[in-house]
Specification:
Alpha-D-Glucose-1,6-Bisphosphate, Chain A, domain 4; 146 residues; alpha+beta; 7-stranded antiparallel beta sheet; 28% helix; 7 strands
Length: 146
């Protein structure tokens, strides 16, 4: 059964700076504990990731996925193409400028290929949401300071 959740965070950076970190998918293992590896398979006309192969591990479950990224002016997201553990997955970042800061809303929907107990699913989703928001914020601020 598909499960959806979302989380918002405010980051002291511009949408372009945040999208730059999201687009650097190869560095995701540096700031997202679930990411074990990422390989860009192709890029769009602007050089941003298109199809990406991800190695993920959450709650002791390993998965290798291929996702298709999509990009907008203040959005980024992906849709699952291949996975051994999930039937479907889609996720979207929506960035809303607010002065010198940006409100980032991350939304994700996953549908596991096999039944997963509710409490395990909730913990996995919570970890993913924290990495996608708090981990992203820490990485953006780290890069701004360097």
């Amino acid at each position: 059964m598909a499960t959806s959740d979302s989380r918002e965070v405010v980051i002291d950076a511009s949408p372009a700076e945040i999208l730059g970190v999201i687009a650097d998918v190869e560095s995701a293992p540096d700031w997202s504990p679930q990411h074990q590896g990422a390989e860009v398979l192709d890029r769009d006309a602007d050089g941003r990731p298109g199809r990406v192969r991800l190695k993920l591990k959450t709650m002791g479950i390993s998965d290798e996925q291929v996702v298709q990224y999509s990009w907008g002016e203040n959005t980024a997201g992906w849709t699952l193409l291949e996975s051994s553990q999930l039937k479907t997955q889609s996720a979207t970042y929506t960035l809303t400028p607010d002065g010198d800061k940006t409100k980032v809303r991350f939304e994700i929907t996953v549908d596991p290929a096999v039944p997963i107990p509710g409490f395990v699913m909730k913990r996995a989703m919570k970890g993913g949401l924290e990495a996608a928001t708090d981990g992203l914020r820490k990485q953006v601020l780290k890069l701004k300071r360097s």
